[in-house]
User: Which sequence fits this backbone?
């Protein structure tokens, strides 16, 4: 499973980022957010040439960070679980940051180690996907995502031919 | 109770909105301030977290109250023919009319047209933007007697004019923003305007339309009269009938009544204009103002004006959804702590998003 982002559906509300931050400090209600705590930065909202983009770990199939990790705390998970980062064994050397082409790993200043999106394995659906009200973030099997894209492309082509 | 709350409440999905950290007042926005950005974070206009949350609350309360004032103005216009003994309005029920007349300090011997004339004159004064700080309007002194609502006079929350506050609140964007506590006091005053306008409009509509639905004040007084002669803890359950279906109110009432058995008496209300009636009823029954008793209002409403209205009446308040104030420590402290000293009542944040544990904690009981 992966998180996919549909930019055309994004409302720019940034609820996904807030949900991720709240999950990183272990709160589920906004009323419980402690004032002084710094959350982990595992995802961010940016603009790329005017298009919104949710920057996060891409869960690469052949991840350079896994190759670069000196302690083995980054590894490929079981089938479908992306790249898993074990915070217990991480020493915060930053080799993964140098290797990652997407700059997806960031330092966890509270604990002197790195952090990244792990797809929240403890949750059935990642909190960022649950928080997105417009369906811009989707938690799907990549094969099904690709299949749906192909279907949509063919459908669009069919409609285009029929109207012309 | 938690399941009832979850099924009844359609909360906004945006965490920033729930905390009041989202501002949409200008075309450069909407701005969002993350709760993790710290005190230096500002919106595009330079407002910090405290100002953003306070101004958001003011905008919400003022916008809602302005709509209610428009309805009141239209109702007041309908009083003209009745006051001039023209037209043939439906005859209001005798008992209900007696209750309304007594509320405003009149005996039942007064003619409807004379009473209408009084209401018309005083309402027009209150709605006029030119009314200034004079001694409290006799109409407001009847609705909010000093014995029952001493804090309203002590803290000068009672408005001189119903419209000036709204004009001031909605025109502030062009001037230097006032201090946060000034904005929050305005929120309280404007919510009082909302309470006054709702109750006045209902009474005027009853006189002019003879609406057969029961007068809220009378119904509430019946409930208050049934209370024992010794004061006891009271929980007022306010579920606005324009926001929730009736079945939600019945379920919430049943569940709360069961849970509060032996702890507190439950008074259900389906409109915020019943709140002052409860306060007046308590004073008549027990000679205690609301803020001198163990009285808490559980407000189920998306409207911050309803929550602040209950605070202004002297009730401590728990609400679902919660007031959008958690984003600012200063604003939260004002409503949760500072108001306790000024009004004798305070806002109680729901525990884990639930209302019942907060109510029980307020009453000194375990959840």
Assistant:
């Amino acid at each position: 499973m992966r998180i996919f982002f549909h930019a055309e559906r994004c409302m720019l509300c940034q609820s996904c980022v807030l949900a991720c931050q709240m999950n990183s400090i272990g709160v589920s209600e906004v009323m419980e957010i402690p004032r002084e705590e710094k959350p982990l930065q595992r995802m961010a909202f940016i603009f790329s040439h005017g298009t919104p983009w949710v920057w996060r770990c891409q869960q690469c199939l052949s991840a350079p960070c896994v190759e670069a990790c000196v302690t083995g705390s980054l590894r490929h998970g079981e089938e479908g679980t992306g790249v898993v980062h074990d915070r217990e064994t991480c020493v915060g050397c930053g080799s993964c940051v140098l290797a990652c082409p997407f700059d997806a790993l960031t330092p966890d200043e509270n604990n002197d180690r790195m952090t990244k999106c792990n797809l929240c394995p403890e949750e059935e659906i990642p909190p960022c996907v649950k928080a997105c009200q417009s369906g811009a973030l989707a938690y799907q099997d990549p094969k099904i995502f690709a299949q749906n894209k192909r279907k949509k492309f063919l459908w669009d082509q069919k409609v285009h031919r029929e109207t012309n | 109770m938690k399941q009832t709350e979850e099924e009844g409440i359609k909360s906004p999905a945006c965490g920033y909105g729930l905390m009041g950290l989202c501002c949409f007042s200008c075309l450069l926005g909407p701005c969002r301030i993350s709760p993790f950005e710290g005190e230096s974070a500002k919106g595009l206009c330079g407002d910090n977290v405290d100002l953003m949350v306070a101004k958001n609350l003011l905008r919400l309360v003022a916008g809602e109250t302005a709509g209610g004032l428009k309805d009141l103005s239209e109702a007041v216009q309908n009083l003209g023919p009745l006051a001039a003994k023209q037209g043939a309005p439906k005859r209001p029920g005798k008992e209900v009319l007696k209750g309304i007349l007594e509320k405003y300090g009149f005996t039942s011997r007064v003619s409807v047209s004379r009473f209408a004339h009084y209401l018309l004159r005083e309402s027009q004064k209150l709605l006029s933007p030119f009314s200034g700080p004079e001694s409290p309007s006799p109409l407001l002194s009847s609705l909010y007697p000093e014995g029952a609502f001493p804090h309203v006079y002590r803290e000068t929350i009672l408005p001189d004019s119903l419209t000036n506050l709204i004009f001031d609140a909605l025109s502030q964007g062009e001037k230097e923003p006032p201090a946060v506590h000034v904005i929050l006091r305005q929120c309280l005053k404007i919510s009082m305007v909302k309470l006054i306008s709702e109750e006045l409009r209902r009474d005027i509509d009853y006189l002019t339309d003879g609406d057969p639905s029961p007068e809220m004040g009378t119904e509430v007084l019946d409930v208050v009269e049934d209370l024992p002669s010794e004061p006891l803890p009271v929980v007022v359950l306010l579920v606005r009938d324009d926001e929730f279906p009736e079945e939600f109110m019945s379920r919430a009432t049943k569940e709360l009544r069961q849970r509060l058995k032996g702890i507190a008496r439950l008074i259900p209300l389906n409109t915020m204009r019943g709140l002052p009636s409860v306060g007046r009823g308590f004073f008549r029954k027990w000679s205690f103002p609301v803020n001198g008793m163990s009285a808490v209002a559980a407000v189920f409403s998306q409207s911050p004006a309803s929550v602040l209205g209950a605070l202004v009446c002297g009730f401590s308040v728990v609400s679902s959804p919660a007031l959008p104030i958690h984003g600012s420590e200063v604003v939260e402290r004002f409503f949760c702590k500072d108001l306790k000293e000024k009004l004798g009542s305070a806002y109680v944040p729901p525990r884990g998003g639930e209302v019942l544990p907060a109510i029980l904690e307020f009453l000194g009981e375990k959840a």
